[in-house]
Amino acid sequence: MSHNHSHPTLSGKKLLFTIVLNIIITTAQVIGGLISGSLALISDAVHNLSDVISLIISYVANLLTNKKKQTLHQTFGYKRAEIIAAFFNSATLIIIAVFLAFEAIKRFNNPQEIESNLVIWLALVAIAGNGLSVLLLKNDANHNLNMKSAYLHLITDLLTSVAVLIGGLLMKYYQIFWIDALLTILISIYLLYMSWEIFIDSLKILMLFAPKHLDIENIQKEIINIDAIKNIHHVHIWQLNDHNVHFEAHIEFNKDIKLSEFDKICNQVEKILLEKFQINHSNLQPEFDRDDHKEFIIQD
User: Fold this and answer.
1) Which residue has the higher pLDDT, 141 or 8?
2) Nearest CA among 252, 289, 249 for reference residue 1
3) 7: pLDDT strictly greater than 70
4) 3-state SS track over the chain
5) pLDDT tens-digit readout, 217-270
6) Closest by alpha carbon to 77, among 210, 241, 248?
C-alpha cells in the first residue's frame, strides 16, 4: 500500500479576510439596490450573498481538512469536506442564475427608472473589493477544487460588478433603463457557464467515478507487462479529493510466490501507478490459482 499526500497548504486567513470584505459589499449592494431600484445591483448583491455563504463553507471545509485527523470511526478524516463544499457552492450558483434570469425576463416587460449614480458608486466599491479578493485567492485556486469554486465565485462577482458599472453609466447618460434587465440575464448565463464544470467535477468525485485524465486500459497494460503477473482484476479507481487518487485491485500471479517477492512486485506496481498515472494510494491483493471472477471491472 502506498501513500503520497504532499500538496500545498491553503491559507485560511485569506479566506477569512475575503468573507468579511464580501459581507460589507453585499450589505452595501442590498441597501443600494433597494434604494435605486436596480435589479442588476440586487442580482449582484444576491450573487455576493451566495459568495459569502460559499466562502464560509469553504473556510470551514478548509479548517476541517487541515485540522481534523483520521480516527477509528472517521478513517478518511474530513478529506471530502472541500469536495462537498465545491458541489454545494456550484449548485447554489446554478439555482441563483436561473432565478435571476426569470426575474429579469419579467422586468423586460416593465422597465423601471433607476437611480444610476448610486448604482455606479456601489459597482465601483464592489469592483475594488472583489478585485482584491480575487488576487488573494488566485494561487490557492490553481491546485484545489474547493478554492477554485470560491475563486470563480469572486471572479464572476468582479465581472458582474463591471457589467453593473457599465449599465449604470448607460442609464445615467442615455436613460437606457432596459439595460438593467439585459445585464441580469447576461450575468445569469455567465453564472451557469462558470458553475457547470465544477458542479459536474465535484459530483463525479462524490459518485466515486475514476478521474477523467486516467487511461484505465493503459493502466491494465502497464501492470500486465510485469512478468510475474498473470492477471489484474476487480479494479476500483476513485478520487478522495483533489490530491488523492485511490486504486485497489486483485493481482493474480503466475506462480505461488513468497511474501517478500510480492513486496518487491508491489513496489514496482506502486511506482508505475504514481509516476505514470499520478495515483498516490494503492491497495493490492495477491492471488494464485484462486477460483473467482477475473474480469477487469467486476459487475457487483
Assistant:
1) 141
2) 249
3) no
4) CEECCCCCCCCHHHHHHHHHHHHHHHHHHHHHHHHHCCHHHHHHHHHHHHHHHHHHHHHHHHHHHHHCCCCCCCCCCCCCHHHHHHHHHHHHHHHHHHHHHHHHHHHHCCCCCCCHHHHHHHHHHHHHHHHHHHHHHHHHHCCCHHHHHHHHHHHHHHHHHHHHHHHHHHHHHHCCCCHHHHHHHHHHHHHHHHHHHHHHHHHHHHCCCCCCCCCHHHHHHHHHCCCCEEEEEEEEEEECCCCCEEEEEEEEECCCCCHHHHHHHHHHHHHHHHHHHCCCEEEEEEECCCCCCCCCCCCC
5) 899 999 999 999 999 999 999 998 877 899 999 999 999 999 999 999 999 999
6) 241
For strand 245-253 and strand 229-239, is the pairing parallel, antiparallel, or unpaired? antiparallel
Grid cell 479507481 is found at 237
- With respect to residue 24, please indicate whether it lies within any of the assigned structural domains: yes
Q: What is the pTM of this model?
A: 0.73
Task: Give the pLDDT confidence of 156-213 residue by residue, as tens digits.
Answer: 778 878 888 988 898 889 888 888 788 888 878 877 887 888 899 999 999 999 988 8
Q: Under a CB-based contact definition with an 8 Å cutoff, are residues 178 and 114 in contact?
A: no
**CB of 165 within 8 A of CB of 120?**
yes
In a domain, 241, yes or no: yes
299 is a domain residue: no
Bridge partners of residue 247, in order along the sequence: 237, 282
Rounded mean pLDDT of 50-65? 73
Strand order in the sheet with 2-3: 2-3, 281-287, 245-253, 229-239
Q: Which domain holds residue 222?
A: 216-287
Same domain for 195 and 246, yes or no, is: no
